[in-house]
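wait is this the right file?? whatever heres the structure
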């Protein structure tokens, strides 16, 4: 089976943050697990580089939008190594192939009769890069950007006939698999049933020049969301599909988009309506994750509770970051992390837990086993419960199962005490101890297989230790 997995594209108006890390690591976990199970995977990430926020940020930085976007895109490209991601593509919305795809998406929607031009006056949120209807405004502000003043804007734009697709979207949303978790699907259904309003898909070039020109009308540039959403297929070579990736992974595969809970309107409604209009297959599943708060509050520089993922990596290592995000963040709900709790998780579960077990077992194995343990197919089989939890986006439950394996091995060590019996004079007793040590090495092999999609570097180190019958360097050193 072929599988397509993509994150949303972060805006390049700020440095990568812990929320980006969460989405990327969750997607990477699924991509690695799918490959481990023999599936062909195309895993996409990238950057969203057009729009008013980028233009304004570039102006404040004294740079052209392209220079500014290039600089920030380079930082996001570095996340592949920083977060140990296995993505197959990094799409930029300023790539020439993407520009051509966005133009084709426009032409197809136009040919379907779904694009028209009109003058519109409304309240515009720069943070969302979108006009806000009255039902979306709370206390005169956009609830997603309460500190950003809404601007009264009046101009002539092109609009997409969103209202035309109410029935089609409700039919799409009737499938419980299209949005995970289900309460987010119900939110989408409620939004559609409240009535869809056609939305603006262009801006006047005199007001915003940083964007893709509308085909046949250089006085307008595409609305950043219309442009950016097309990345999910442009990264596969759509529409020309010279390499056959679009046919293989989008049309013939299972498509999965990962996104934050604030993206429902854009990913599950606007984007799906665009796909229907353009005659392209709709997304099979979209998973929406929650947000990460710190100390019971939204992260804020002014409060001083921002958690920088790069600081975590520098202190604890990339696998510690991945561990915390996968096990101690509730996948679909908001979660709370602090630097203190991250340190506690590291010490209790990685240093004293997994790291200590690995060191004790491989010290015994290196000293007392004459040759490396050959792992069986059963030793390297993934537990069904682990696969089921992961495939249902319960990453924390999947990780809990692995750490139950670790606890089980610890309990076996405590009960059997091979470190005591291996040095005694009775040959039968020593042989039994060697058998117990071999059992523990096999347990490490099983743990490594399950950790491979989550903590790939740690899993590789454990597998190497087992293969060479040698204690590795301390994976999770005790920190002061």
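ok assuming it is, sequence goes like this
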């Amino acid at each position: 089976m072929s599988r397509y997995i993509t994150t949303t594209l972060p805006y390049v108006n700020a440095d990568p943050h812990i929320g980006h890390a969460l989405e990327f690591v969750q997607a990477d976990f699924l991509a690695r697990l799918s490959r481990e199970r023999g599936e062909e995977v195309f895993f996409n990430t990238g950057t969203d580089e057009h729009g008013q926020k980028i233009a304004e940020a570039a102006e404040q930085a004294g740079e052209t939008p392209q220079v500014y976007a290039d600089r920030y895109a380079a930082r996001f490209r570095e996340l592949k190594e920083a977060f140990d991601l296995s993505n197959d593509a990094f799409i930029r919305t300023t790539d020439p192939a993407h520009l051509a795809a966005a133009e084709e998406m426009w032409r197809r929607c136009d040919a379907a009769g779904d694009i028209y031009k009109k003058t519109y006056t409304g309240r515009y949120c720069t943070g969302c890069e979108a006009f806000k209807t009255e039902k979306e405004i709370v206390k005169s502000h956009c609830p997603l950007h309460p500190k950003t003043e809404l601007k009264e804007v009046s101009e002539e734009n092109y609009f997409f006939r969103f209202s035309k697709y109410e029935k089609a979207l409700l039919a799409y949303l009737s499938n419980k698999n299209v949005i995970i978790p289900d309460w987010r699907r119900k939110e989408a259904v409620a939004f559609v049933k409240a009535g869809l309003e056609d939305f603006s898909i262009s801006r006047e070039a005199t007001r915003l020049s940083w964007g893709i020109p509308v085909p046949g009308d250089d006085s307008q540039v595409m609305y950043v969301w219309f442009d950016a959403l097309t990345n999910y297929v442009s990264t596969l070579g759509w529409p020309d599909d010279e390499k056959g990736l679009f046919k293989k992974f989008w049309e013939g595969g299972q498509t999965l988009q990962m996104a934050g809970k604030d993206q429902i309107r854009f990913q599950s409604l606007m984007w799906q309506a665009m796909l229907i209009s353009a005659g392209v297959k709709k997304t099979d599943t979209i998973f929406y994750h929650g947000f990460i708060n710190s100390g019971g509050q939204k992260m804020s520089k002014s409060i001083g509770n921002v958690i920088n993922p790069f600081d975590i990596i520098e202190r604890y290592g990339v696998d510690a970051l991945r561990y915390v995000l996968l096990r101690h963040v509730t996948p679909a709900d908001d979660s709370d992390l602090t630097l203190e709790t991250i340190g506690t998780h590291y010490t209790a579960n990685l240093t004293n837990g997994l790291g200590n077990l690995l060191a004790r077992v491989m010290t015994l194995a290196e000293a007392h086993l004459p040759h490396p343990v050959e792992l069986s197919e059963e030793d390297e089989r993934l537990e069904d419960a682990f696969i089921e939890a992961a495939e249902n986006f319960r990453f924390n439950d999947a990780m809990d199962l692995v750490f139950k394996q670790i606890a089980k091995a610890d309990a076996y060590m405590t009960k059997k005490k091979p470190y005591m019996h291996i040095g005694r004079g009775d040959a039968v007793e020593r042989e039994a101890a060697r058998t117990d040590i071999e059992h523990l090495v096999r347990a490490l092999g099983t743990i490594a297989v399950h950790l491979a999609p989550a903590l790939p570097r740690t899993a590789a180190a454990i597998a190497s230790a087992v293969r060479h019958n040698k204690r590795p360097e301390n994976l999770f050193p005790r920190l002061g």
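The two ends are 47 Å apart (CA to CA). so i think its the right one actually
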